[in-house]
Amino acid sequence: MPGILSFFSNDIAIDLGTSNTLVFTAGKGIVLSEPSIVAINKLTNKIVAVGAEAKEMLGRTPSHIVAVRPLKDGVIADFDVTEKMISYFIRRANNGRVWVRPRIVIGVPSGITQVEERAVKDTAYRAKATEVYLIEEAMAAAIGAGLPITEPSGNMVVDIGGGTTDVAVISMAGIVYSRSIRVGGTAMDEAIINYIKRNYNLLIGDRTAENIKIDIGSAFPLDEEMTMDIKGRDLVEGKPKTITITDREIRDALSEVTSSIVESVRMALERTPPELSADFIDKGMILTGGGALLRNLDLRLREETGIPVSIAEDPLSAVVLGVGRILDDLDLLRRVCLP
């Protein structure tokens, strides 16, 4: 059927994340994975850098250049900057061809409001899209992780992104239960910054906090203790200072965030129909998103819920891979996209 085959000929799937944006094009796969950061010259209002280049500038720019994250908690906080960022990523995905006007499918958090849905669509249309479809990230993550979402059985996915954590129970291509909390990788970074400031009077930046989370962060005790030397500014003396922290301290710093994620999963299990709950005893749940890489989070969830927990093969790309697969399946797109 040529009509269906040509439907998404030049088209793009986007995982528009608080921390990272991934872009998938039909026939090529993932063509772009960049931090959702834009550096702007405030004097000229022009973009200086986008993505990884802009991330390098965080905390290191002169006063007239500011590096900003235009998305907060999974939704658009700055419309103009987000539009410029999406336009830039579309051009990159299409090798700089400015005349291309693609159809776009975008993954959005499960708890998005109608006003926020409209904001995402309007931004994509202003970025030269011909048609825009939205799909909930939890549904996209389930498809990207290879779950049999069209079958009449329960599939549970926990997608832990930069700004939000989406928990969903899916059956027959529909979401039976979903919950989105505005807690994710960014909240983990902030928790680490606040813990070190409170306990050591040391100020560290976002990038340092993220490195600490990646290097020694955990949600459940490790087999061997890990330590890390970190550098920051002493808030009392104002001088650079180095301290050594342990994985236990960072686990304590992250406890409130990880407890929120565990509680959301518990609530989903309580509110799932018993026929579908029975499926989780054998199939368990699957973790996706960058937050799924936090050490021993799967063990913590298994300990707290009593059901098996697995991590997607490529948790960082699960959402965009799911949205990308929908590009090739018009029928599934119509079944799962938001009205």
CATH class of the largest domain: Alpha Beta
| Shape label | flat
Beta-strand share of residues: 25-35%
CATH architecture term of the largest domain: 2-Layer Sandwich
Rg over alpha carbons: 21 Å
> What is the CATH topology descriptor of the largest domain?
Nucleotidyltransferase, domain 5
Would you count the extended β strands for me? 18
Number of domains: 3
Average pLDDT, rounded to a whole number, is: 90
Q: How are the strands of the largest sheet arranged?
A: 3-2-1-9-10
SSE pattern, N- to C-terminal: HEEEEEHEEEHEHEHEEEHEHEEHHEHEHH
**Biggest beta sheet attributes:** 5 strands, mixed
What is the CATH homologous superfamily assignment of the largest domain?
ATPase, nucleotide binding domain
